[in-house]
Fold these 2 entries.
Entry 1:
Amino acid sequence: MSTTPPTIQDRPADLLGDLIRFDTTNPPGHEAACIAYVRGLLEAAGLDCVLLARTPERPNLLTRLRGAGAAPPLLVYGHVDVVPTEGQRWSHPPFAGDVADGFLWGRGALDMKGGVAMMLAAVLQLQAAGVRPAGDVVLAVLSDEEAGGNEGAKFLVEEHAGRFAGIRYALGEFGGFTLSVGGRRFYPIQVSEKQLCTLRITVRGAGGHGAFRTQGGAMARIARVLLALDEAPLPVHVLPSVRRMCETMAAAVDEPLAGALRALVEPATTDRALAQIGPLAALFDPMFHHVANATMVRGGVKINVIPSEVAIDLDGRLLPGFGPDDLVAELRARLGPEPEIDLVRYDQGAGEPDMGLFDLLGGVLRAADRGAIPIPFLLPAVTDGRFFSRLGIQTYGFTPMQLPAGFNFLQTIHAADERIPLDAVEFGTRAIRAALEAYGRA
Ligand SMILES: [Zn+2]
C-alpha cells in the first residue's frame, strides 16, 4: 500500500516554520522573499496572485478563491513582517523555526506568521478539495503592519481600494484564543481595537549656563507632567462590546469573580474592580480607559546648557468612537493649562463594531472546543484592521488557538521566546477552514 506524503497545506506547522525562517524584521521588513514563497504555494495550487508594492522589496500579495456568488466576498488577511529581536535572550534562535517541547519557536510564531500559516493552509485545503465557499475568499498577505502599514494595508486601502469592492467582513489578527478564567475557557474574538493617537507635550522655562543654580525650569516642569500622568488612570468609559464581554464572563464564573466583573461595567466602581481581578487587570484596564504613556523624552543638547524647552512623546491609545480632542481634554484636566499639547499622529479607526459575523465565528469555536465561551474583545493595540475599516470592512480578529491553561501567550508577543503550541496551529487551521465554509450559508 502506498501513501502520498501530506502536502504542505496539511502540515500547517511546517508551513509556519518555513515562514519563520524568512527574517522579515521590520524595519527594514524586506518581506519580498517570504511573499514569493507564499506566492509559489498558491500558484502551484492553481490560484492566481497579484503583487502590489509601493517599494519593490516590500510587496503585498492578493489572491482570490472563487466562491459561488451567494454571499459578498470575505477578506482574510495577515502580515508577514515581524518586530525586532535585538537585545532579547532567546532559548531557541528566533529565525530557525525550531520545534521543541510541543512548541514551534520563533519570531512571528504568534504575531502573526502563525495566523498567516493557518489562513494560507485553510485556503489551500479548500482549493485542493474543490470546495466553493458561498462568497469569494480574498486572501491578502501583507507587509509592514508592525511599523505603521505605509507599505502594506494603508497603501492597499489608499491606492487599490477597488480590489476590496463589495467586502463587508474580514478575518485578521487577533482572537479566538483560549483565555482561562475562573476554571472556564473563554475565547475572545476581536471585534474592535483602540485608535493610535500620538501626542507631544512641550514645556518651556529659562535656559542658561549649567554652572548657575536653576529652579522651576523646563526639566522640573516636565517632571511634574510625568508625575501627574503616573498618578492615576484617565477617566473610565464603558463601551457596549466591553459590557457584553464582562457580562458574558460574569454569567459563567463563580463569586467573587462574577461580582468583580459586574462591578467593572459600572463606571463608579470600574477602577476598584480592576484591582480585584488579578492578572486579568493588565489586559482589561485599557478597554476602559484612553491610555497615554510617555515613551520618549526630548530635551537638552549639551551637559553645561540648561534647556529652555523639554518635550515628551506620548503613545496615546484612544477607545473606539472617540477623537484626539477627547484625549487632549482629559490630559488638560489633569495637567492644567500650561503645557503645550500637540497631535503627532492619529489613525482613525472604526467606531462600534458590526457584530454580524460574531455568532458564526463563536459557533465555529464552540464546535471545535465544547467548553468554549466566545466573548467579544476590544484589542488594546492596533492592527491593519484600522485601515480596512476605512473601506467599511469590519475585521474580526480570528486566529484561533486552543491553549493550555498555564500558557500566557500574550507575554511572549513582541518578546523573547515567542512560540506557539503545535496543536494550536492545527486547531486554528481547522477553525478558519470551518469559518470559510460556514460563511454566507446561514
Ligand atoms: Zn501583528
Entry 2:
Amino acid sequence: MSQPILKVENVDQRFSGLHALKRVSFELIEGEILGIIGPNGAGKSTLFNAIVSLVPPVSGAIWFRDRNIVGLPTHRIAELGIAKTSQSVQVFGEMTARDNVAVAALLTAKSVSAARAAAQEELEFWGLEGHADTLAQDLPLAQRSLLELARAMMLHPQVLLVDEVMAGLNEIEVDDILDRLVRINRERGVSLMVIEHNMRALMKISSRILALDYGSVLTVGKPEEVSRHKQVIEAYLGVE
Ligand SMILES: Nc1ncnc2c1ncn2[C@@H]1O[C@H](COP(=O)(O)OP(=O)(O)O)[C@@H](O)[C@H]1O
Ligand SMILES: [Mg+2]
C-alpha cells in the first residue's frame, strides 16, 4: 500500500511566456486518494494534461510504476492504466447514457455483448440505470458528471485523474459522488487524484492533499496539516 504508483519528478510546463508548472515533484501512493487544491490558474489541469500526455511537459519525468511515460501517446497511457475525466473522456450528447458507456467499454471488451453487459453493470454502479435511455445532453448536470466517471472506469484504470467533476453540484449530489469515488478507491482498487474547489468535500475523502500555486508545489500533506499551512491559507483560503 505504501509504494508510489505514480512519481512526478521536476516537471516543467511552459506556454510561450508563461511558466505554468515549475519543477513539480510529488508521489501518488498506490491505493490513496490525493486531493489537489490551488487557485484558478495555479496549473492543476495543466498537471493532469501533462500526466496523460495531452500536453506533454517540456522537461521532467513521470514514472508510472517503473516506466517513464513522458512522450508516450495519450492512448498508450490510457492502455497502461491512467484515465482522466472530462477532456479525454468525452460524453457524446446525442447518444444515450447506455451507449456512451458501451462505446467506452468497446475499447477493452472482447465482444459487443460483453461491452453491453459491462456498460449495464457500470451504469448501475453509478446509480445511472434509471437514466440509461436518456440522451447524454438531456441528463441533469449531476448525472452527466457521473456518466463521465462511468465512461472513464470502462478503461479499467489503475489511476484515475478527476478534474472538478463536482463543480455546480449541490451538497447532496457532491456527497453522492464522494461516496462513489471512495468506493472505486476501496472496492475497485483505483488510486485517485482529485482536483476540487470544494475543500470540505476534498478533505473528507483525501488521504493527502497537494497544494499548487503559480505552478509550484506549496506543500503536500495530511488534510489537517495542509489546511493549517500558512501559504495555503494566504494563497487559497484567503487571509482571515
Ligand atoms: N494549452 C495552453 N496554452 C496556453 N496556456 C495554457 C494552456 N493550458 C493552460 N494554460 C495556462 O496555464 C495556466 C494554468 O492553467 P490551468 O492548469 O488550467 O489552471 P487550473 O486548472 O489550476 O485553474 C493558466 O494561466 C492557463 O491560462
Ligand atoms: Mg483547471
